[in-house]
Design goal:
The complex is a heterotrimer. By secondary structure, chain A is α/β, with parallel strands linked by helices. Helix content of chain A is 45%, strand content 18%. Chain A folds into two domains: 146 residues, Periplasmic binding protein-like II (D-Maltodextrin-Binding Protein, domain 2); 164 residues, 3-Layer(aba) Sandwich (D-Maltodextrin-Binding Protein, domain 2), CATH 3.40.190. Chain A contains 16 helices and ten strands. In chain A, strands 1, 2, 3, 4, 5, 6, 7, 8, 9 and 10 form a ten-stranded mixed sheet that branches. In chain A, α3 links the parallel β1 and β2. In chain A, α8 crosses α9 and α9 runs parallel beside α16. The longest helix of chain A has 24 residues. Chain A is globular. In chain B, β1 and β2 form a beta hairpin. In chain B, strands 1-2 form a two-stranded antiparallel sheet. By secondary structure, chain B is mainly alpha-helical. Chain B has 24 helices and two strands. Chain C contains eight helices and 20 strands. In chain C, β12 and β13 form a beta hairpin. The chains are: A alpha/beta, B mainly alpha, C alpha+beta. Chains in contact: A-B, B-C.
Chain lengths: 361, 558, 340
Amino acid sequence: MHNKTLVAVATGLGLLALPVLTGCGSGDAKGSAADSRTVTLVSHDSWLVSKSVMKDFEKKSGYKVKVLKSGDAGQAVNKALLTKDNPQGDVFFGVDNTLLSRALDNGLFQSYEPKGSGLVLPQYRVDQDKHRVTPVDTGDICVNYDKAYFSEHKLTPPQSFADLAKPAYRNLLVTENAATSSPGLGFLLGSAAKFGNDNWQDYWKKLKANGVKVVDGWEQAYYQEFSGSSEGRKAGGDRPLVVSYASSPPAEVIYAKKRPSTAPTGVSQGTCFRQTEYAGLLSNAKNTKGGKAFLDFLLTKEFQEDMPLNMFVYPVREGAAVPPDFVKYGPQAKDPETMAPGTIAANRDSWVKSWTSLVLR
Amino acid sequence: MDVARTEVAAARKGTARGSAARLGLMALPVAFFAVFFAWPVAAIVARGLKADGVWQFGRMADVVTQPDIRHVLWFTTWQALASTALTLLLALPAAHVFARLDFPGKQLLRAVVTVPFVLPTVVVGTAFLALVGRGGLLDDLWGVRLDTTVWAILLAHVFFNYAVVVRTVGGLWAQLDPRQEQAARMLGASPLTAWRKVTLPALAPAVAAAALMVFLFTFTSFGVVQILGGPTFSTLEVEIYRQTSEVFDLSTAAVLTLLQFVAVGAILAVHAWTVRRRESALRLVDPKVTARRPRGAGQWALLAGVLLTVVLLLVLPLAVLVQRSLDAPGLGYYRALTDADGGTFLVAPLHAVWTSLEYAVAATAIALLIGGLAAAALARRDAGRLVRGFDALLMLPLGVSAVTVGFGFLIALDRPPLDLRQSWILVPLAQALVGAPFVVRTMLPVLRAVDGRLREAAAVLGASPWRVWREVDLPLVRRALLVAAGFAFAVSLGEFGATVFIARPDNPTLPVAVARLLSRPGELNYGQAMALSTILMVVCAAALLVLERLRTDRTGEF
Amino acid sequence: MLLSLEAATVRLGGRPVLDAVGLDVAEHEVVCVLGPSGSGKSTLLRAVAGLQPLDSGRVLLGGRDQAGVPAHKRGVGLMFQDHQLFPQRDVGGNVAFGLRMHGVGKGQRDTEVGELLELVGLPGAARRAVAGLSGGEQQRVALARALAPRPRLLMLDEPLGQLDRSLRDRLVVELRELFRRLGTTVLAVTHDQGEAFALADRVVVMRDGRIAQSGSPLEVWQRPADEFVARFLGFENVVPATVSDGAADTPWGKLPVPDGSPQGDRPLLVRPAGVRLVAADEGLPCAVTARTFKGTHVAVRLLPRDGGPPLEAACALRAAPEPGAEVGLAFDAAEIVVLG
């Protein structure tokens, strides 16, 4: 008799506990679905916007914005793809041109053309017939160089892909793993765009012979191996050339303990690859009206001008002003390499594979 | 002889009640395991291997025959073997020291030795980089950089797993009756022969169990390899992570997950067998009796050597962390933790300490409930093979990739009443998956050691089964329960892999906050990361020190 | 009938440990189950206590079938072989345990514990720790604990097995007195026939899960049922014999048998007291092979000259011959039992 009671109590407790616990937690989720006053943004960890700008949107639109950060860009896209039948939010921001085809081919987004699409600069526009994604920001992946090193050694910094392979710059470059890192991949794609499908392998062979160092992630490359960043200097970084962003020099200035008069690092203009970030309305989103309003918000002048100092990217909207610090210390790349998302999708995996066996193994 | 059917049925009812009780105890752990582990993992594997409703088993052959994958498999196994050998080499002398020598500060040292085990990999990776990487201590002193070699990985593995060997082997060694060896010596054996022929065979199961555990942990090592290995070194777990999270090739990831399952399952099966052997038929004594002060130059030298190893290998990386956190004048980094910079965090990073503690309490409660019930069911004398198989099954979460579990949660737990994707309970659940095995391992030997006849004596005196448990089992296992809780608590605090995938980003735990700070530019962020890591270290150490005071000799290890 | 076992069978590992055992214990009776290890005695106790389910048969307590009644509801007391005192509690806590389970209030508990401890000869020991007790003291505490809830049936498993000889002898007397005074119904099991005979009103001999003989100690001693019981009781002089009329043909020659003995081929027992030593030419010629001092008498081992198995005789202390001496044997019919 007592054993049976024990069984009943144990199972009963277990079954009771679950709904109680889920009730506590998913109160939010249930709330946001039923309450169409909340719009949920799913993004990567680097999403950032000033509080005042966001408050402004919330006041004007009447929606409350909930932000779900889910890892780095690649992870966030993959998680969204995994959950596309029952997405965790309404809008997704943060798929870039290297991953765009994966998102579009898997039906992650539904069509919507936000107000203000007409003001997006033409070089960033994409998916013109279906309008499943909206460009939101752009940045360039470029080789940064340590000005102090090059002036000490009386060397001109390299300015193009070809320069990097020259013996004068032997053992000076550090880059990231193209399989796992966004700038690493961008650099690879840039070289593929420059030299074409048939010749980029030769270029990389030359780079390898010239002593290029590959590390796993951008943090390690920039903060430890690069001699131009403040942390890198502290960590004893000995590579004056690093694959990073065109917006890294302004960041160095803005975040320095004592603000220098010129940027300590510069950008090699001829080594850039354009990276554009997109946002879209998720298929199966619960609050489509709110999502649309949010997408409109992303293209407003207010948001576009708020982006640079928060996410260190450049606006895509015509007429949006770039902060003076950016202009002074890190001008946007003039003529970066580009590649159509379709081409990227078709070749990415095989290129990364051959790159890996060429450079890493 | 004709026996009335009613009598037979009446007698059988007795046994049926026994197994009903056993099944009742197992119900909740099994349900927990099925819903929060088996189902998500199966879901993500199915997503990978099932295309348009058809199972693509052919994929398995494709993946396994790829040279890249074979290289990964070989490297995973090789570095696990090397790490295990190195750990055994360095930690066995320490096990002897802890078992047989008595010296002041022994409890403190045991706590110190265990701290690395519960630290998150992000902290350990950073500490080691600060030690052996670019600009690290070794670099400053001698220009030596190990972070591009496999040695960094091996050393970090030893750092993590030192405690496993010391506690498992040392724990048993301390309880071996020295009179057994003395008996051998009376019969004419030299001290070395006596040790070899009497003590070593008795220790063998513990050494085997410890080695298997270390092998398991290093085989499935992720954070360490990722941070310290760079792009050239890749283990199975890292590969699963890449395939799932970055390349999004779910079918390859699924095949690799299954492969890892098989390997881990085999390791656990062998481990279960050695554990059973260890728990049987040994004359065990009170460890307080066997330890004494070092005598003779040899023993002093051994003690000194072990202390030196501990300082260099375990304390030094952590010391570098602490030193870097103090780099700003007037504890600047610590003070910076108290304000939110509105950027990286919506709340002050110090809030992460509070969040971690909340999650840890919830995770510990769940782990105690699940692990306690499972241990109670497993400890019964009549536990059949099915129930014992569950013992090994409960350990599986230790060997399955956190990204698999995390992603599995995303696709499995998405419908009410189990739409937990954004629920705060998801993190404690994932942490409890890792904590429950520790609870079972700690409590099982104690529960098994409770003489069944003591329970029978209470029953005959009129105690119902519930009161029997309360009057007999509970007082005896109370201490073990506290130790188990402490362990689950520390493990939960340091859990990183699963948490980073499923934690709500606006409410990070300590390890996740550290990772976030490290990924942002600026020395301020780096310094804050060091400060948070130091706080985490101190909290873990404090919890473990309290544990040391509560431990009894019977409390189980691994 | 307080306890009734009807065809109780327990199978462990395929073989029957209790094989259709029938047993009755009346109120106030002290029954000792005697048997070698493996005979099923402990299983019998556990089956009655409810710790071991029956494969067939019934246990009746007070006329009620105990099938389906769990151990904690049967109202029997069980004293374990190794006492099983609760290590976390002191002596008083152990003794009071059963009272607590039955909901007795604290004040009354303390009174009863005090009384019981006096009864078992440990007055005022309530606060002592269990770990510091000697074997004899532990045994008394275990006894007090089992008695406390006033069980209708008290069962003892090897009650004196752990103690040394003098303590054992003393305790046997004390226990018998105690049981008589309290009127407790007792079912004890032991392998020591001295203990069983000293304690019991009735002795039940078990072998391989079956009852070989049941009767008062005197009955069992004087008339063992078969060869097994005889040998178990310690008798060595058991030989095969052919009985016809008043005599039996044995390897030791023709021996007289009491009237009414069963006829035909049967084992035959000669109690040592029935072997008289006479002059070598007056009886069966034998040589003395060994002498063992037994306290009250001397056991003399003898080997017949003309072949035949050795036998044992009991001699007074002063009359015992030296080893090697030649003696003659005469047999008393009164001490001869035809077995089977």
